[in-house]
Amino acid sequence: MKLAIQLNDVSYLYDYLSMGVDLFIVGGEYSAQNVLSLSIDEIKTVKEKCNDRKVYVLVNGLYDNHEITGLEKYIKQLNGFVDGLLFQDFGVLQIVKENKYDFDMMYSPDTLNTNGMTLDVLSQHGVTSAFVSRVIPLQEQLMIKEQCSLPLMIQGHGVEYIATSKRELLSSYQQATNLKFNVDQNSELVLKPRDSEFKCRIYEDQRGTHIVSESRLYTLDLLNTLKVFDYLYVETLMMKQMEAIEVVSIYSDAIKGLETGKYNKEVKEFMPLLRKISPELSRGFLFDQTVYKLEDMRKMDNERNQ
Amino acid sequence: MREISKIVNGKRQIIKKPELLAPAGNLEKLKIAIIYGADAVFVGGKEFSLRSQASNFSIEDIKEGVEFAKKYNAHIHVTCNIILHQDNLEGIEDYLKTLDEIGVTAIIVADPYIMQLAKKLNLSLEVHVSTQLSTLNLKAIEFYQSMGMDRIVLGREVTYEDLKEIMAKTTADIEYFIHGAMCIAYSGRCMLSNYFSRRDANRGGCSQSCRWYYDLYQGEDKINSDEDIPFSMSSKDMSLVRHIGELIELGVDSFKIEGRMKSLHYIATVVSTYRKLIDAYCEDPDHFINDDKYYNELLKSANRALCHGFFYPHPSKQEQLFNLRDEHPTQEFVMRVLDYDEKKKLMCIEQRNYFKVGEKIEIFSPHHDNIYFIVKKIYNEDMEEVEVANHPMEILYIPIDEKVEMNDLGRKVQDER
Asked: Which of A26, B177, B218, B262 is the most exposed place for a label (fewest CB within 10 A)?
């Protein structure tokens, strides 16, 4: 299992390289939920510094038709030096296929990769790797790995994607109420539903409004099970620089421990450290199920009301 | 290039009339949608469909719906638009074969596994790409065409300008939403329900968390006070009633109305309004005046305020429902006409909601203009006079001078329009 991260500060690249990070995911002009927005030249520099390590670019928006011409030029510029693209719009895949570009095309739709058969179908249409959905239990993630022939990435740590709207929901609310607050990614805005205890982060950028979890998913103590996957991803979105560095360092050591046979012993020391660094940890949906059938939803509502 | 219109006897007429596609949550609504002018109706099956809270159709129901639709030269589309999980795969092949055998025109699909399976099985039915995949651009359309898909249902985020370019360049069959509720996030990419209530939105369990009230915090400090309007992501419903002419001129293949969970009254009103509007425009596009009558008719069934969605310009606070004051009152649906005796000038109706002698009723129909009358008398099945109609589904008789027709519907007039 290789360690992948979203690069959140280029000045710490050598630190991450020395920790043994195998794959860097970087944000650019067409990215969504990205920490950085690097220019083509900056991405080139990152790749040069990474040497044999892989660099993927987030081309993971859903693109309006008027964006396509610019997007085609952008992807053309990335071709030849970037190793892969994370995408969710099949328009991106179509552009790459038409031009016979050489990228690892990692299908990363946040919510849709929930079974292995579908991924096998997509592998016949140009998808070469995939990011498994976070909203399914670990057991199902493992079944997908068993069934699917594609290299698979799973999220190991960090905030979880919840939703993206093309609308400027926070700005509209400001206009409706005259309340003043920052809406950007660094504003640390927390959204709390009145009917639920779950809290999340919300921010706006040029692609609209984004909502992610407040708590960080963690899997540090589950790596014996997760090691069947090809990539373990650490999401650095919403992390301060030091938190990101320390979290990545711990996961990197833990993965090395898997190789040297020291993991089972070391993880007991790593877990308290992780709890100290990260504000709030969560298991996400790893050991939980969502319901969707009417009878199950009624049962769940009754249980909640009692 | 799509040929949209031609000159007939010196007058331009639309020759590419779009399909009007309506929703239905049960057989009664399906039939009403077709009677009121839908060219096609989309329904959900018991399996593999979103909107698990809609009273979804059994195979027998779908079969009856297909047979009914055929009589009107209409079509039935079945949603198979869940995002499959590992435990949802069983039975899908037999289900698709059965839908094909009973004459369903199309399935609406979000999962590429089902897309490929339907094509591999060599079925007669068409495979339509669901709006759950949020298709917004020509390149994505080309991708689905390369998979052999027969129609693409575009995401609601597609603007008029983008749609114009798409329609000018694509050869694909395109379906576009013209009316109904709007997801606040990109469809298929919203996990609010999953996180807030453990209900899977992509398998039909959406708890509509976007319409809840929220508080905003900056760190530990609450931004909105109790006196402020609470934060909400709730959108007004979309209605492109004022833009139907523009959409017809672009050559959009199918106009979709959202709302499988909506009432019979809603479906009849909305379908009937768009049917009459489309027909009137196509008949004489260059002299058509889109006055307020169509919009006002829609308001009678609206349960949320209406907006233009992403059509143009980009949605702002005007398109959001930040508090309930924007909600629009619904006219109350009170009767369905079963028969009319022309000699006695007496209509036989099925009661749907409370009404009484002295109240003003508006009868609307797929075939004639709306009729307003005051209820002077009500008789029960034994022809005994009663003052109030307060038993749902009771058969009653009401005198009315103007001719009404079977399947006309009546609503209580709450204010003069």
From this structure: B218
Q: Does B184 touch chain A (CB under 8 A)?
A: yes
Distance from CA of A32 to the nearest CA of B (A): 13
Q: Please tell me which residue of chain A has the smallest CA distance to B206.
A: A292
Q: Could you write out the three-class secondary structure of B339-375?
A: EEECCCCEEEEEECCCEECCCEEEEECCCCCCEEEEC
d(CA A186, CA A35): 10
Cis upstream peptide for B313 (omega within 30°) = yes
B316 touching A (Cβ < 8 Å): yes
At B179, list the tokens: 């009316």
Nearest CB to B86; choose among A115, A121, A198: A115
Could you tell me if A40 and A171 lie in one domain?
Answer: no
Which one of B139, B216, B317 has the shortest CB-CB distance to A91? B139
Residues A110 and A231 in one domain: yes
A101: closest CA of chain B, how far (Å): 15
Q: What is the mean pLDDT for each group of 10 consecutive residues in chain A (306 residues)? A: 97 97 98 97 97 96 98 98 98 98 96 94 98 94 95 98 96 95 94 88 96 97 98 97 97 97 96 93 89 67 67
Q: Residue B315 above 70 pLDDT? A: yes
Contact: B194, A68; criterion CB under 8 Å: no
Mutate to test the interface with A, among B115, B120, B134, B200 (most CBs of A within 10 A): B200
Same domain, A40 and A170: no
Last residue within a domain, chosen from A214, A232, A257:
A214
Q: Does B228 touch chain A (CB under 8 A)?
A: yes
Please tell me whether residues A233 and A133 are part of one structural domain.
yes
B172 to chain A, minimum CA–CA distance in Å? 15
> What is the model's pLDDT at position B53?
56
Q: Which residues of B158-197 are buried (b: 16+ CB within 10 A; e: fewer)?
A: bbbebbebbbeeeebbbbbbbbbbbbbbbbbbbbbbbbbb
Question: Given an 8 Å threshold on Cβ–Cβ distance, is B186 in contact with A164?
Answer: yes
Claim to verify: residue A113 and residue A42 sit in the same structural domain: yes
Cβ neighbours of A169 in B, within 8 Å = 184, 233, 320
Backbone angles phi, psi at B292, to 5 degrees: -75, -5
Task: Judge: A285–B89 Cβ closer than 8 Å, yes or no.
Answer: no
pTM exceeds 0.90 for this model:
yes
Residue B373 tokens read as 């009358």
Provide the domain limits for residue A61. Answer: 2-158+217-305
Tell whether A186 and A147 lie within a shared domain: no
A-contacting residues of B 87-106, CB under 8 Å?
87-89
Phi (first) and psi of residue B164, to 5 degrees: -60, -45
Residue in B86, B133, B139 nearest the CB of A140: B86
Q: What is the CATH number of the domain that holds A37?
A: 3.20.20.60
Query: Which one of B185, B229, B316 has the shortest CB-CB distance to A164?
Result: B185
CA quadruple B369, B77, B278, B242: dihedral positive or negative? positive
Per the CB < 8 Å rule, is A111 touching B202?
Answer: yes
Say how many Å lie between the first and final Cα of chain A, rounded: 44
Domains of chain B and CATH, by start: 5-182+235-326 (3.20.20.70), 332-412 (2.40.30.10)
| A192 and A109, same domain (yes or no) | no
Residues B163 and B154: beta-carbon distance below 8 Å: yes
Confidence of residue B417 (pLDDT cuts 50, 70, 90): very low
How many distinct structural domains can be found in chain A?
2
- Domain co-membership, A17 together with A106: yes
User: What b/e sequence results for A245-278 when a residue is b if at least 16 CB atoms lie within 10 Å of its CB, and e otherwise?
Assistant: bbbbbbbbbbbebbeeeebeebbeebbeebeebb
Q: How far apart are alpha carbons B176 and B252 in whole angstroms?
A: 7
Token reading at A21: 């990070």
Q: Is B154 helix (H, G, I), strand (E, B) or coil?
A: strand
CA distance B171 to A235: 40
